[in-house]
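FW: tagging you since you asked about this chain on Friday. Here's the raw sequence from the shared folder, copied in full. Didn't touch anything.
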Amino acid sequence: MTTNGGFEPVFCTIVPPHVLDKLAQHEDPALAGPARQTLERDAYERTHRRLTTVIGAPAVAPSDAAATDKPQRTIYDARHRQDLPGKKVRGESDKPGKDATVNRAYAGLGATFELYLNAYARHSINGEGLPLDATVHFDENYNNAFWNGEQMVFGDGDGEIFLDFTIPVDVIGHELTHGVTQYTANLTYFGQSGALNESMSDVFGSLIKQYTLGQTAAEADWLIGAGLLAPRVTGTALRSMKEPGSAYDDDALGKDPQPGTMDGYVRTGRDNGGVHINSGIPNHAFYLVAQALGGHAWERAGQIWYDVLTGGELKSEASFADFAKLTVAGARGRYGEGEELQSVLKAWEQVGVPSV
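HL: got it, structure written out here
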């Protein structure tokens, strides 16, 4: 159940279209070929998602996991084909096998479940114990991972630019958080609301990584997708919440285009109005709040963001300012007039988003 009158599941990928567009134009076919194939596959999956939404898909029934506080995970192997979900290779409580990709996907689903349960008392991504399904080894040289409204899908990467997409746990958390947003605020995937949708996934993806590693805000790297880029790439990750625009600067990938403040806001019709680009602004605001408060970011800073995402007042077409004002109200409502409120107010001021 969503707060905004029904599901509008969208097709969400971790690698933005503008990155793949850049790669697809490269003169080296070893780089351009996989990027073009990935773009074509993403276009197909996006269309399929839209048609499924219009026609209607069978609802995924919640399981008994809600009552037991345990996830219900199933990992499938596509065997480098495109049929979903593929062959089942690991179920809940099965012992690890020899395939490291399968084991990482299983662990990442569990890490996501644990953060939402232990920090926010949420039972799986829909709050009702939804089973968590994932497919690995999708297609050949597939340079992406995505949430399609029903399950996770991971490519193995081309080995030239991207490595296995199960390597960074925050990528797994990012994509599953699109599911949380789908079942709560249902943020429209375009413009500022779409950038907020992406930012929510980056925020909680990062928190899942920090929770898994037991890191404080000061200890965290605040990178999204660290470990995903191949050695030849000049860069550290897909995005940086600490310093948007600094994640990579590479001959093949180009320069990270994310702004950290509204002064750099990008107006474009591509990428659903720049959802993967302008998400750097609310990302940076969250980082600033977390740093100011210190300690574990999933506690006070994360709680404020979670309260707004799931509280029922965040509209599906919310702007940055709408969201900022709700975080101010949320901080005041939960923590009073103390440092939490002041940190939120200051962070939005620093990134140039009105919050009062």
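FW: The beta strands are 12-13, 73-77, 87-91, 132-136, 145-147, 152-154, 223-224, 239-240, 249-250, 254-255.
HL: agreed, and The CA atoms of residues 10 and 149 lie 6 Å apart.
FW: great, closing this out.
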